[in-house]
Amino acid sequence: MNYLNFDLEKAKHTSKELNVLLADYHLYYQKLRNYHWNIVGRSFFDLHVKFEEMYNDAIIKIDEIAERILTLRFQPTSNYSDYLKLSNLKESKSELSDIEMVNNLIRDHGSILSQMSKVVATAGECKDEGTIDLIGAYIRELETTTWMLDAWRMNSEDTRRSI
């Protein structure tokens, strides 16, 4: 571990939290594929495209998270059965309305953001700026996506809070 100048034991904790995030992203990715394939109704064209955009983004993040774990000199989890045990997310049925799908994704975003905060906290303990930078960008992007999904489900008469 000398080439990164990290405390190996502290980096082990970061890798553990990254593996949970990796599991979260695998379940999230599959949920997005499920919703992309099974969306019907008036929102089909909008959400079919949006879900594809989101799962394409998720697959990139899956690879980057696994490669970060390898950079830290640990093994990324790579079995779906392990992902199901590790993940903060749950699988979803296919027969949902558009609003149920979006609500589930927003709820999942909250869980993923919470896990990302754990990763950043453990990475901070060993001054792992690479992981902090990677996950910090993910946090910003996921918060923006969550805002957009939330705006989609709002009624036009809903208002924003004044400062």
Query: How confident overall, as mean pLDDT?
Result: 94
Note the run of SSEs as H and E.
HHHHH
Radius of gyration: 17 Å
- Structural class category: mainly alpha
Number of strands: 0
Q: How many helices?
A: 5
Terminal CA distance reads 48 Å
Strand content: under 5%
Q: What does the overall shape look like?
A: globular
Instruction: Please outline the major beta sheet.
Output: none
User: Which spans of ≥5 residues are poorly predicted at pLDDT below 50?
Assistant: none
Helix amount: over 70%
Report on the structure:
This protein is 73% helix and 0% strand. With 163 residues, the chain is an all-alpha fold. The termini are far apart.
Using brief descriptors, characterize the structure shown.
single chain, 163 residues, mainly alpha, globular
Which SSEs are present, and which pair or pack?
Elements: H1 8-38, H2 44-71, H3 80-86, H4 98-125, H5 129-153
Helix pairs in contact: 1-2, 1-3, 1-4, 4-5
Task: Summarize it.
The chain contains five helices and no strands. With 163 residues, it is mostly helical. The N and C termini lie far apart (48 Å).
